[in-house]
Design goal:
This protein is an alpha/beta fold and 269 residues long. Helices cover 31% and strands 14% of the residues. The structure holds S-adenosyl-L-homocysteine. S-adenosyl-L-homocysteine (SAH) binds next to strand 5.
């Protein structure tokens, strides 16, 4: 999979490409990340990429011409394919695990990183084929969002993660990921490692039991419970099994019980 990143700060990405999954995927020939300095597509002496906004107001806006030229140069390299061009923008559709799974099916993506007040709207209208936001907050540039998208897409590519089983069990992983796992779409269950007793904080007994069915049920229940408590929105439309329903009913009953606070109402001696 190839990513072409258009940015005024290509150096921003250097440490990212030297660590973790991105480094590994590049070394294994599974991903390639090409950085393009937007200023190389300017024609004036000062290599100007921005200008003042029509209509007045503070801040600067990316001029359409350099971005257009950068994308056109990439398109010229692939004449028989309409490029997928993603503009990073807080106004785009929200990036989620499902979007990462959708993007990993492409073999090539162009990412445009804005700065200042953003990019001339004609780029969004006529050049970008998609506009993606990484969340309802505003950053100063599209470089972090681009890095975030590349990281989450690349780790889904077959062969990139050391343990192929680990991606489908992660939080949010959806049905479409082709996963036969038993808890797709939920938050992940809690993980523990040695020692079994750390400062008196013990690992749940069931995980030490070796009883695979009990462990499966415990993990499923914890994943459901965490999701129900923290992100009930994820349960909308979720295919609950009969066992899940019973467990959620139990949780709901418990939640309605009066909270027992030890020692409440006792006289202090
Ligand atoms: N004036 C714009 C914000 C510009 S922020 C607005 O209010 O909508 C400058 C650049 O940072 C954007 O062009 C975009 O590329 C990037 N950016 C900031 N927040 C982002 C987010 N949540 N998701 C994706 N890109 C973002």
């Amino acid at each position: 999979m190839t990513f072409d990143v258009i940015t005024i700060f290509p150096d921003f990405f250097s440490s990212l490409l030297e660590h973790g999954v991105l480094k590994r995927a590049i070394a294994a020939g599974l991903a390639s990340i090409r950085l393009h300095d937007l200023r190389d597509f300017t024609e004036d002496r000062h290599r100007t990429v921005d200008d003042r906004p029509f209509g007045g107001g503070p801040g600067m806006v990316f001029k359409p011409d350099p971005v257009f030229k950068a994308v056109a140069a990439l398109q010229a390299g692939r004449p028989d394919q309409r490029l997928s061009v993603i503009l990073l923008s807080p106004q785009g559709r929200l990036f989620t695990q499902a979007v990462a799974e959708e993007l990993k099916r492409q073999d090539h993506l162009v990412l445009i990183c804005g700065r200042y007040e953003g990019v001339d709207e004609r780029i969004a209208e006529h050049v970008a084929t998609d506009e993606i936001s990484i969340g309802d907050y505003v950053l100063s540039g599209g470089e972090l969002p681009a890095a975030l998208i590349m990281e989450s897409v690349v780790r889904l590519l077959p062969g990139v993660l050391g343990n192929e089983a680990s991606a489908p069990q992660d939080s949010f992983t959806t049905n479409q990921a082709g996963c036969r796992e038993f808890r797709y779409g939920l938050l992940d269950f809690p993980h523990y490692t040695r020692p079994a007793d750390f400062q008196g904080w013990k690992v749940p007994e069931v995980l030490l039991s070796g009883n695979h069915e009990e462990i499966r049920r415990w993990r499923r229940q914890r994943a459901l419970e965490k999701t129900w408590r923290r992100r009930p929105d994820l349960l909308a439309g979720f295919p609950l099994s009969e066992e899940d329903r019973q467990w959620l009913a139990t949780l709901q009953r418990q939640a309605c019980e009066p909270v027992v606070i030890p020692g409440l109402g006792e006289q202090k001696s």
